[in-house]
Design brief:
The protein is an all-alpha fold. Helices cover 96% and strands 0% of the residues. The chain has one domain. The two termini are 42 Å apart.
Length: 151
């Protein structure tokens, strides 16, 4: 007997819920639509702003890297000029002195190259960290928007 009573209660509850939804949905749907549309617009707007900011950051990093490459090229050209001058001097100087001068210039070029490499690497790391920070901020804003949407 209790099985039939539970079945009857369940059926009555299902009907009551269905009637309640049929009455309240026409009121709730427009309210939800008026909340969801501005929220969706805000999420899209923030996404576009984040995209533009990321694009600017990448452009700045690219420019910094291009500047470093240009500096490196000019330093290599200057070093090549110094190397040519050293060759001319080495012909006049003894053979023992010339290799030392050459090693000194080579060491200077290597040190400058390492320094420029470090600057470039730092610039790229900084750009990467900035992008990661922007992505995390976007994720948190999207999560907040989703949480607000669920409410």
């Amino acid at each position: 007997m209790s099985l039939l009573e539970n079945s009857a209660k369940t059926t009555v509850m299902g009907i009551a819920i269905g009637v309640g939804l049929a009455v309240t949905l026409p009121v709730i749907v427009p309210i939800l639509a008026s909340i969801i549309k501005p929220l969706t617009k805000a999420v899209i707007k923030e996404g576009l702003i984040l995209y533009k900011t990321g694009q600017e950051t990448v452009t700045e990093a690219k420019e910094a890297l291009e500047d470093l490459v240009a500096e490196t090229k000019s330093e290599i050209a200057a070093s090549a000029g110094a190397a040519a001058a050293t060759k001319k001097l080495s012909k006049k100087a003894s053979k023992k002195v010339a290799p030392r001068q050459h090693k000194s210039i080579t060491k200077t070029i290597m040190d400058e190259g390492k320094a420029l490499y470090g600057k470039g690497k730092d610039a790229i790391t900084e750009a990467k960290e900035t992008m990661e920070q922007l992505v995390e901020e976007a994720k948190s804003e999207i999560a907040a928007a989703s949480a607000a949407k669920e409410i």
